[in-house]
Specification:
Blueprint: E1 2-7, H1 15-26, E2 30-34, H2 43-48, E3 54-58, H3 65-74, E4 79-80, H4 83-90, H5 92-101, E5 110-112, E6 128-132, E7 142-144, E8 170-174, E9 181-188, E10 191-198, E11 210-212, H6 216-229, E12 233-241, E13 244-252, H7 262-276, H8 290-295
Parallel strand pairs: 1-2, 1-3, 3-4
Antiparallel strand pairs: 5-8, 6-7, 6-8, 9-10, 9-12, 10-11, 12-13
């Protein structure tokens, strides 16, 4: 098969997805890599050529790669994940609305362009967790204990203003009391793996990152997220609060840290999705059952049969792929 990976600069040296790319090449598949932030791309010819079986995106929220992936989808090419599913979770405000409308356990969510606007939230709902709607990897997540702790108004045009380089929509959610440990659950085309790690809100809390047993309730919630958003490769941050599990974040194509044989499993899943299509292409929101998702999962990480000779290269610049700084057994990446 022939695949195109879109990799943002932030992940240039990370094990995920670089080790997946190396694994696919070792299985005799052709993989082109485009760095959207620094490649010259003849976009009309490259995408219209349709010479790839699938396009795969590993990008930051708001990065240029998502536009390229949407362009590929617009001409009927397979994307991993489905591009509509990616858009639904990249915007945390949008993801919260979609998830709550489907009955998933997501905190009440407020949105504002300026942090001082959150002072209008009833004091009984504090402390609040405030973060960018387009954030990733725990960036700029803040715990605000009381309304008077909210940041002072920013100057118009300043770096943190809505029209500044660091501006944008913010969301706020009531803090969910917890042990200081985040539960991160990964889905590799229906196969679920639970891990725990230190919460970014409690950095002093010592937690050894490790795989942990997956409870039926958390497994059900995680699988439903895939159903609702149409995702195949994703991760979910869950807190175990006093009233049960609560979803606090959803990520497409995450790091898959602590997943056994993650590189081989994710590589096999990418091939399977490239051959058969992602479920987001055909499934209506919430229509796919957990049983169907699991029956469609990747059961083993085996290489595909040798592919037919590749089509002529699409006309865009492909730069050399660096070797990751970490071994495959210790996959890095965003939260």
């Amino acid at each position: 098969m022939r695949l195109c990976f879109l990799v943002e600069e932030q992940y240039r040296h990370d094990g995920m997805p670089l080790e997946v790319i190396h694994q696919l090449r070792a299985w005799d598949h052709q993989v082109d890599v485009v760095w959207p932030g620094r490649s010259l791309i003849r976009i009309s010819e490259a995408i219209q050529a349709g010479s790839h079986d699938a396009w795969v995106l590993k990008t930051v929220s708001g990065g240029p790669g998502l536009t390229l992936l949407e362009a590929a989808a617009s001409v009927g090419l397979t994307t991993v994940n489905d591009v509509r599913a990616i858009r639904g979770v990249r915007d945390k405000a949008l993801a919260a609305v979609i998830a709550r409308s489907k009955g998933l356990p997501v905190p009440v969510t407020y949105a504002a362009a300026r942090p001082e606007e959150f002072a209008e939230i009833p004091e009984a709902e504090f402390p609040l967790v405030v973060k960018p709607a387009d954030g990733s990897s725990g960036r700029a997540v803040r715990l605000v204990a009381t309304p008077d702790r909210l940041p002072v108004p920013v100057a118009p045009g300043g770096p943190d203003a809505p029209d500044g380089p660091h501006g944008g929509l913010l969301i706020a959610q009531p803090y969910v009391p917890n042990s200081g440990t985040d539960l991160k659950v990964y889905s590799v085309a229906g196969e679920l793996y639970a891990t725990e790690r230190c919460s970014p809100l409690h950095p002093a809390h010592a937690v050894r990152e490790r795989q942990v047993p997956l409870t039926p309730e958390v497994a059900r919630i995680t699988a439903e997220i895939g159903d609702v958003f149409g995702l195949d490769l994703y991760g979910v941050d869950i807190l175990l609060g006093p009233d049960g599990p609560v979803i606090v974040d959803i990520n497409d194509f995450p790091s898959f840290r602590q997943v056994p044989d993650a590189v081989a499993r994710v590589s096999a899943a990418v091939l399977d999705l490239a051959r058969h299509g992602t479920r987001g292409r055909d499934a209506s929101v919430g229509a796919t059952s957990v049983r169907e998702a699991r029956e469609a999962s990747v059961r083993e990480a085996a290489p595909a049969a040798p592919a037919a000779p590749a089509a002529p290269a699409a006309p865009f610049t492909v730069q050399p792929l660096p070797r990751p700084a970490r071994p495959a057994a210790s996959i890095g990446g965003g939260r």
